[in-house]
Amino acid sequence: MPVAAPLPPRPVPDATNVTCAYVPGGRSARPATAPATTSAPTSGTTEITLDTTIGAVPLVLDRASAPCAVHSLESLARQGFYNGVACHRLSTHVGARLYQCGDPSGTGTGGPGYTFADEWPVTVSHGSGGYTPPPALYPRGTIAMANTGRADTNGSQFFLVIGDSVLYPQYTVLGTVGEAGLPLLDAAAAAGDDGSSPLGGGTPTTPVVITGIR
């Protein structure tokens, strides 16, 4: 695997709440509304469980890392936005081992009809002279927001990182996969993918479909 620096230190929040801007836009893959309140707490964690076709995958979401991303995901989960949605992409390449989930269209281009700004580590990762910062190590178990590759295009899609992955630090980190979920994801990933994605990997051979979130 390529050598990469660890993610930069996470800054300490300077307020107990932040105001999040959820901007209408992007391809809406399923009817959804932005969170009713734009104020999000910046401390503590919240635990949710993805009920999936391969078993229960617990997630620990970190409000200090990404309060607006966590606030959005919780809101979409309550609306049932993710119910019946497959993780449409699996990559098992060395240095990029992850599932991409959260797009009801299954194309990698769909979202909730709104976008929001990047958070850590994107906001503290800066290249020199205006260049893109060098890749960083996203450790196994990381949950990170997927985006279009442009700034502030977060929506509903997220990565479940199943192996240490070297990625450009342009993906907001919002928590970790619980230990009980990783072996389930590993076992499903062992069946491989169809190689159909131009980003690497493709549709998982063993489907991973979110049947509900609790």
Automatic annotation (TrEMBL):
Cited Pfam families: Pro_isomerase
Domain PPIase cyclophilin-type: 51-214
Keyword Isomerase: yes
Sorted UniProt keywords: Isomerase
Family matches, as InterPro entries: Cyclophilin-like_dom_sf, Cyclophilin-type_PPIase_dom, Cyclophilin_A-like
Isomerase is among the record's keywords: yes
Superkingdom, taxonomy of origin: Bacteria
Disordered, as annotated region: 192-214
GO molecular function term, any single one: isomerase activity
Cleaved signal peptide residues: none
Xref: PROSITE patterns: CSA_PPIASE_2
Task of the protein: PPIases accelerate the folding of proteins. It catalyzes the cis-trans isomerization of proline imidic peptide bonds in oligopeptides.
Record's protein name: Peptidylprolyl isomerase
Species annotation: Rhodococcus zopfii
